[in-house]
Every structure is written in structure tokens, then in C-alpha cells.
Amino acid sequence: MMLRYTEILPTRNRSFVINEGVNNIAYKCPRCHVMYKFFIPDDTEYLVEVLEKKRGGVGLYLPPKDVWEKENKEIKKRLGDLGYM
How many CB atoms lie within 10 A of CB 42? Predict the structure, then answer.
């Protein structure tokens, strides 16, 4: 499983019925392309601390570009095999 993204929402969000912040984490299988998403409720103070100290205030983390490029080559090959390119 490869990390696709993580997103920290430190305060209560309308999408969730909880009063805490949420850490959204998504993983994707590079072979079968199944995607799993986890919505992990956590203490607001902790999530704000992670945002400030570890991420420089940026809530969304994406893997480096070279990780995405490897997968793009595989996707292009699969689409070509299906006759799309």
C-alpha cells in the first residue's frame, strides 16, 4: 500500500458527526489500485500541534512527485493495453 495523501482538519467539520478534529489518510495499492481511506478522529490541540510543528501550517500532504510519476507510467500502460492511447 502506498500513501496517497493525508489531510488534517483540526476543528469540527460538517461532514463528520464528531466534535473533534479529523486526520484523513488514504492509501492505494499500486497493483490493483484499490483505495482505502481512514477518517481518524483526534484531539484538536494535538492536530493543531502537528500542523504547526511538523507541516508548517499546511493541512494537506501529498507524496513526492517521483512516486506519482511511477504510477502514471503504469496507468498509461494499462490504458494503452485497453486501447485508449
Answer: 16
